[in-house]
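Q: I have two molecules that I believe assemble together. Could you output structure tokens for the complex as a whole instead of separate predictions?
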Amino acid sequence: MYTFSSKLKTFSLVLIILGALGMGYGFFTAPKTTDDVKEMLHHADEAHETDTHEATAQISAEEEQSHLEHALHQAQNRPWTAFFIPAFFFLMIAVLVLVFYAIQWAAQAGWSIVLFRVMEAITAYILPGSILLFIFILASGMHFNHMYAWMADGTFDPTSENYDAIIDGKSWWLNTSGWMIRGFIYLFAYNIFRWILRKNSIALDTSNDISIYKKNFNFAIIFIVIFAIFELFMSFDWLMSLDPHWYSQLYSFYVFSSMIVSGITVIAMVTIYLKHKGFIPFVNDSHIHDLAKYMFGFSIFWAYFFFDQFMLQWYANIPEETAYFMPRLLGSYQPIFIGMIVINFVFPFLILMDSDFKRTPWFVLTAGMLILIGHYMDIFQLISPATVGNHWSFGIPEIASLAFFLGLFIFVVFTALTKAPLHAKGNPFMKESEIYHY
Amino acid sequence: MSNKVIQAMYDDDDVLLEAVRQTREANHHIEEVYTPFPVHGLEKAMGLKGTRIAITSFIYGVIGFVFAIWMLNYMMIVDWPQNIGGKPNFSFAENMPAFVPILFELTVFFAAHLMVITFYMRSKIWPFQTASNPDPRTTDDKFVMEVSMDGNEDQLADFLKQTGAIELKVTEK
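A: Yes, here they are, computed for all two components at once.
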């Protein structure tokens, strides 16, 4: 049995409290009126000493007002964006670990059984994570923020000056009530399947009944199919609709690849931590080696999707498509966009290429840290350009909400580890996994 | 120095593996083992060093990558810049995304082909090379272990018989 070390517990609680305070600060200091924004932009202009004043002098007062309102919305979005990015990131890590876990069941894999309790513990975050994300969904749907441009009043009304024919053409899918219901369905399904798989896995420990194993095998297959469908639409709903005019058929797979490599990295890191502490002596080098192989493989998988999506639109150069890449490739998000390619592809590729390095915990941890940072940057640049716009920064709200969700994640995962024996002894493949040798 | 060797033939890979292990424990020097198919664990039993082909593969990949950069830069930027889809054609860096597939392909091409050639050279399989296995049956269902003679011939022969050899042959090498 694992006992939550008090040091780690304190650390996670401190992160949660500091994070919550910082998030509160972010919401509290967000500008309330256009006057605040005017002042804010004025300061920014002075700091940059640009000659935008000449340009602004020529535009009419009405245009300036609408410009200010837009800037206000973006500034008000900042704490919400800061909340949404880690909420989505950590929830998807947990969900993708559940998918990876279900794949092990469905494939009747022998090597990974010793890691099952680690994976189950990580998926424990799905429940609190989806509650927090659902709060965000409710808040967005009830217009507490301006994250989703297509939710603005009059977008679907031909008589309104906000009318947008392109978005109206998608209104059969992109409408606020449907969006909220779908969000609930996705999160509900993940929680249900997590609950079933975990319950049966625990039940196997104390029973010789093979029908429990078969039940989990079937549920795992159903979950993989359902997830494959839900993930497509979830990415469209939550992320791609942030840029409602732009579309890419690869987008869902891109998000999937980004999050599954993070999920497997988290499995590897928690495993190495527990093994270092001596709680799972039955995990050997070959299991770490296999996880590192997955990290290596999925990093390349991610780079492949990233590049496919990017190059076709870059090369075709159609304005409505390249509009998406303008702020990222050439605008203020360039350092993140270029940086994440290096961190997510070049580093894991070089660090994890050698087979001996994959067995060295120190190397796997280094590569894992880089992968997690890189994919956090990836999710950041998926969301921020559409909601915060060009004047982004990584300040107190962003760091605080990252700290909050990281703390919560650590707290929930390591609490879940204490709930069940770390050795899933009831699984019929346990012996095969224990003697697994590459 | 005598170059005499004993070629001991076996008819089962498990027996062979065990024989190799015993022979090494008895401090006899195994020159070579001929098998009709790769035997798992044989390289460990023989105490061979790990292969360095992976390192050569990486080096060849880097060579291919650099070659592709040079080639594309020369073709598309220096020698004959072409306007394809209005893309910037005077700078390698700005045109790089279009070159990625070629960079990738040439890296793989160099790594794969040079690695195979290296493997052939290292294994001494080049054109017009004749087969060097001592007995044609080693391409069918028999295994031959070649042990160098370093003392009493009868003693070694007895020892090899014990390990399960079905046929012994002494030859000059």
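A: One point stands out. Chain A touches chain B through ten residues (CB under 8 Å).
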